[in-house]
Give the backbone structure.
Amino acid sequence: MRLLFDANLSHRLVSTILDDFPQSTHVRHVGLMHGSDDEIWQYAREHGFAIVTLDSDFYDLSVLRGFPPRVIWVRSRDTTTDTLTQVFRRQTRQMHAFFADPDAACLMLKARR
């Protein structure tokens, strides 16, 4: 399972989750830091990534276009790298189940308080 982190997430998240999600990257590392949603969507689709984002734009695209790519929509008011790393670590099992489901297009993750 390869994750492509959107520009609204820190590029530092990648190094914190590589043990659980190898080959993941950030839009910054693939030249799409200022890319449009369509460009990021196409890149993720062509290269086998799921898009990880904090906003609803990619969820909306998944409703309109279907998948791939899959979308992981993180719902959190605290977007520090440490908090989001904890969210991903707590939800690793759920994320693997999401990728195993052939009909799942979007997973919403919520940060616990």
In short: The two ends are 27 Å apart (CA to CA). The first strand starts at residue 2 and ends at 5. DSSP finds five helices and five strands in the chain.
